[in-house]
């Protein structure tokens, strides 16, 4: 028996023109599936509705992937694929399996010899790097930094030192309502010559991308990034 395919289906990053971020073929593949493994069922239904899904969503098998899935949970999610049914893996926003628990499912699919097919779509991390003007030859994504002080400032200093040593762009994110606090910590912890890019609301009509030295950022008002999904990029010089 031939197993199904695990399609990695990108989701939009916010309100935008669908055709601007998702190729028609990606939309067609997503509309052809009747089994989805998702980070959040509610947001997945909204995204499928935006895709113009041709069937009632109540008839679609949508299962949530636990944030820290056990082997047994991963195996259960892959049973339909082993039986020959294809599935779509969807993140809450952007591409699945990048800064997303879906990576565990993809690994399990490979181990089960299930075909994995990544589909083209928006990645906030790469879009931010493209637009930052920072080093795109050497970069690292670090996810979320510590929330509390002094751990957060200590981590920022470590990342800045690594960036200066290796000329590596350091990329990280924060929960939107803590963006302003992270920005303030960066201004306090970083050297004046270090470059900081903040990319917010990517692909939406609220998109704002600014890349400046820390000493310039310190002379300006705090950017309007509170409650806006944002990517932070740092390069020490």
Structure summarized in a few sentences:
The protein has 237 residues and is an alpha/beta fold.
Radius of gyration: 20 Å
What composes the largest sheet? 5 strands, parallel
Q: From N to C, what is the helix and strand string?
A: EHHEHEHEHEHEHEHEEHE
DSSP, total strands: 10
Residue stretches low in confidence (pLDDT < 50, at least 5 long) are none
Mean pLDDT: 95
Name the overall outline.
elongated
Judged by helices, strands and strand pairing, the structural class is: alpha/beta
Please give the share of residues in helix.
25-40%
Strand order of the largest sheet: 3-2-4-1-5
- So how many helices? 9
Distance between the termini: 56 Å
Percent strand: 15-25%
Model description:
- By secondary structure, this protein is of the alpha/beta class.
- It is 36% helix and 21% strand.
- It contains 9 helices and 10 strands.
- It has helices at 18-21, 24-32, 41-50, 71-82, 102-111, 124-132, 151-166, 179-189, 214-218; strands at 5-9, 35-38, 61-64, 87-90, 115-118, 139-144, 169-173, 195-200, 208-213, 230-235.
- The strands form 2 sheets. The chain has a 5-stranded parallel sheet, with helices on both faces.
- Helix 7 (151-166) crosses helix 8 (179-189).
- The longest helix has 16 residues, at 151-166.
- The mean pLDDT is 95.
Q: What does the secondary structure layout of this molecule look like, with pairings?
A:
Blueprint: E1 5-9, H1 18-21, H2 24-32, E2 35-38, H3 41-50, E3 61-64, H4 71-82, E4 87-90, H5 102-111, E5 115-118, H6 124-132, E6 139-144, H7 151-166, E7 169-173, H8 179-189, E8 195-200, E9 208-213, H9 214-218, E10 230-235
Parallel strand pairs: 1-4, 1-5, 2-3, 2-4, 6-7
Antiparallel strand pairs: 7-10, 8-9, 8-10
